[in-house]
Structure formats: C-alpha cells, structure tokens
Here is the input.
Amino acid sequence: MEYLPLFFDLRGKTCLLVGGGSIALRKARLLQKAQANIKLVAPEVCDELKILLREHKASELLPRSYESGDLDQASLVIAATNNLVVNKQVSDDAKALNIPVNVVDNPDLCTVITPAIIDRSPLLIAVSSGGRAPVLARMVRAKIEALLPSSYGQLAELASRLREKVKVAIGGADQRRYFWESVFEGRASELALSGRVDDAEQHVLNELTKAAAADESEVQGEVYLVGGGPGDPDLLTFKALRLMQQADVVLYDRLVSDRVMELVRRDADRIYVGKKRSDHAVPQDNINQLLVDLAKQGKRVLRLKGGDPFIFGRGGEEIETLAENGIPFQVVPGITAASGCSAYAGIPLTHRDYAQSVRFITGHLKDDSTNIKWGELTEPSQTLVFYMSLNGLSTICQALIDHGRDPKTPAALVEKGTTQQQRVFTSDLANLHHKVIENDVRAPTLLIIGGVVDLHAKLNWFKP
Ligand code: SAH
Here is the structure.
C-alpha cells in the first residue's frame, strides 16, 4: 500500500490554494464542500472562482503570485497552476514545513492525493489508484455511484441518530451487529431508501423493542415484484438490482434471461415457476399462494419477471393476493419488451412523420380467435406492438388487412430483443410471415407494425 487513506476534518481550517483557473475552481468546490477556509493565491482568477470565493464566506483572495510566506497557518496546500516551477516551489516549501501538499496531476510532488469521491454524507467512499490510473479510479467510482442509491446518506443519518439507543438496548456486540445488518438489509432500509425516513425510524424502533426482548416472535417478510427487462442485464434499474441482491428466495420464469439471473444474490433459493405457452408449469393461483406463504415465513421474496411486471405480466394479480393477505410488497418497473426491442432494433415507436400513438396488444389467440377489436387498429398513424404473437402472426397480419390496413404497411418481428441473439426481420403485413418461416424464428418475439418500421434500415445500431 503506497498511501494510507484517511479522512481529513478541514472544517474551519485554512487551506492554501494556488492557482486561478478551472482546475483550481474544481479544487475550491471540494474545499468549500469540506467547509474549509480557502486562501487563494493567483495573479489571475477566473470569474467562476471569484463568485465562489465571494459566496463562500470563509475565504481570502490574494491576487498576486505565490510567495513562500503564504503557507503560514495552512493545514493543507493545493497547487493547481499550469506552471511547473511554481507547483514545484509550493511543494518544496510545504514539504519543508511538513504541511500536507497536493499538486494536481503530479503525484511526485504530492504528499497527499485526492481520491475520487462517492458522497452519501455522512457516508463517504473514496477511490484512489495512487495517481497512477485516475481514469480507472473514476470509472470505479461511477460503478459504485450506480450501486448506492442517492438516499443512502439518509440511511446513514438514521443509523447515526439511533446508534446510542441501540447500544443501550442491545448489550452484546455480536447481537448488535446482527441487528444493524438486519436493519440495513431489511424493510427499514427499503423505507429509508424510498424516502420514508420517519416510517423507517419507527420500524427500527419497533424492531429494537423486539430484539431487546430477545423474543423470537413473528417475523414479517416482504415481496419485491421486479421487472427484469427484456434480456440485456444493463437494462435493469438500480432498484431492481438492489432488491435482487438482498432477496432470500426468487421466483422466476422463462422470460428472465440467464444473464439477469446471474445478478440475483448467490445464496438466494431459486424457484422456477416457468410458463411456456402450451404448458403452464405452475398455475397462477399456486404462484400467488407461494408468494404469500414464503413472505409469511419472514422471507424477502423476489418475484422476478421479464420486461415490466404490469405489462402482460400478471403482476397485478399476484400483488392483489398479497394485498388481500396483508403482505407488504413493492413493485419495480422494468423495461418492457416494446421499449427494449424497439430501441435495440432502431425502430422508434412514435415519430412525428409516421406515428402519433402506439398500442401494446396481446397477440395470444385462443383457438385462433380473439377478442381484439381490429377496427380500432387500422389508423395508419398508429404503431401497433403485439406481444405473444409468434404463433398467431399470420392470423394477426391477415386480420389487419381484412379490416382495412394497407397490406404494404411495414412490419417487423424482433426475435430475442436486446440479447446477443437478437434478430430483426422486416417486411410488410402481407409478407412478414414468409420471412419468419424461412428463418426458423423462435420465441420470444415482438411484432411491430407501422410506418416507423421503415426507419430500421437507417437507425439499426445494435449489432450483436
Ligand atoms: N411483462 C413482459 C411481457 C410478458 S408477455 C414485458 O413487459 O415485456 C411475453 C411476451 O413478451 C413474449 O411473448 C414476447 O412477445 C415479449 N417479449 C418479452 N421479452 C422479449 C424479448 N427479449 N424479445 C422479444 N419479445 C419479447
């Protein structure tokens, strides 16, 4: 380890900043956040920096070149000029006085370096490559940023407020650790992260009373109804990923891609409740009941669905049963197949020149008949998206033609959209089914109909 990471309390301390350009501005912002007194020395100072210093009361501007005496009383020195001679002078002077010094982009002249920061105050995460690969450090930061919801700070504040109380109520250090783990992984955390800090606090206090009484009494689970998107795991939401990481058990079906399943917590039990078109592996009622039973056992149950749970996903039915049984639940939307497939096929669902509206329709036909109101679907400026339509494809296209939609209307079938196996077949209403037969297309597929399909030729960007 070349550097020891420490967090520096600079509140009310003087920091000398040498330089007046955009790099100095960046450092000044950081010092302002850390509530330091900023003493800035530079012959020329950019306007933004002047404004910052004016607004930040604890600051002093010396509009001249750096002099060794400027280091007087400084707790930290940052050199941010583009003049190597000046930077070296500042570094030498500071080192002679044992004042921590940072010279921007020059690790050799530094005794301290500034990390990339993930700020969820009071929670702070600092990432450093020791000045060797700053771009990599910034990329790592971006990854961590994505992992930690912005409301993590509120959760840390909450923990800080209750820390003493918990200490008093639970004597054993281990027991206390278990308690905090359960807080940060459980419902209180969820409440805080979704902004319900007061409810979260109340929940922690209730849990604390229970834990203090060491009563192994009733535990209440929760169900997360989560949209897993159309296949590409990068299309998951932050919230989906977080809940996937903390579930005890996951119920999933065939549409959830393997790459998405890989992101579910390793230790979670996995229950396949897959439904193939012809063979309903687990009847819906059983799934609904299973969710209730598992939650009643105190489990955090992830119900992971392809796409969005509220679009042809029966998500509504499942949570209705939960609501009737008083089981807490959350719903996390996902990228529905229509959004995912259209984006990855370069087919905008609406476009000012082609389509003013879009309709999502189930193409699941029972006994080759359907209660679709075909007459409503003939308007040329309307894009139609049919889910579950591979088997009924020719029936659907023919019905549209029969009801007056132009046989030349462009139509596309997107197979396994957003995945590395994606294929897009374009044609028109009259001929699409020929292409599908020729190419041995497999489910899942999405059918998109309307003028917008012509844009595929130009906008087709995704090349798996
Ligand atoms: N809740 C899901 C839809 C479930 S219905 C959602 O919001 O996307 C199942 C249908 O979704 C499939 O028959 C198919 O038409 C469509 N679908 C889901 N994922 C798809 C994918 N990756 N590519 C193409 N179609 C997909």
